[in-house]
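Predict fold of NACHT LRR and PYD domain-containing protein; 320 aa.
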Amino acid sequence: MCHIPVFCWISATVLEHMLKHKREEMPKTLTEMYTHLVVFHTKQKNEKYLGKEETGQQWNKESILSLGKLAFQQLVNGNLIFYEEDLKEAGIDVNEASVYSGLCTQLFKEECVLYQDKVYCFVHLSIQEFLAAVYVFLSFINNNENLMEKPQSTSRNLSVLFMDKHKVTVYKSAVDKALKSETGNLDLFLRFLLGLSLESNQKYLRSLLTKTRSSSHYHEKTVKYIKKKIRKNPSPERCINLFHCLNELNDHSLVEEIQSFLRSGSLSKPNLSPAQWSALVFVLLTSEKELDVFDLKKYSRSEEGLLRLLPVVKASRAAL
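Predicted 3D structure, encoded as tokens:
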């Protein structure tokens, strides 16, 4: 992510604000970083345009939900550019679209294309993915709607009655949909959605939440479900993203397990499970050390091992 200019801008914006105001612990995950970004710009907008000096994390609920709905609908459709009819479908008054653009200039912008109608887009796809995740999360917590599945015919009363039983399904549904995508267009969205499921991140959404529930039990189930998917050996790209998802959920057990193998020097033996191979690739790809020369001789030379290590070889400048 540090090679992406917009993420450098996001990091600088968030960290400068937090250091300047001596805020709490620095963000450690993408979800935390983007949450702080939107909170910061919402607060900035309130102070600049509404004359309100906010001391806490304040969100403009209507704006966030409308932009979130637009972000989710267009993300599912694979669209990065939106038109007036798209805004109307998301509940945004076209006549007031410039207000959204003006109030959230760092998050959403309006462009006028020569000889065409106005078009709209988010500053970066990752902003769209984050707001889409916020919308799906809030729809689930506040309205008991699982937007990752088709609407159920069950009555609302029965739906509420079985809320606890189905609470985890929005995360499972999102994992399944992301894994089915060949393009990986839902990968980052999934990471944000799972990150928002943590209570530690929900404290920043207080003004948007109408209900609060303990999530520790569902967190454990979601982690187990992701590990189950990793063991089923998806494509390397999807598998690596699942490890990023575990990181957003603050679960590092598989990574710590493979790090013990690295310390013991037992990786030259073909005794790793598919999940452990995936963890090894994730550890190597996310290492702070530059992959100038990757020495394959340190690892198992089995056919499976070599195939598993291909993403690392591709990311290296040379391999031995």
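The two ends are 27 Å apart (CA to CA).
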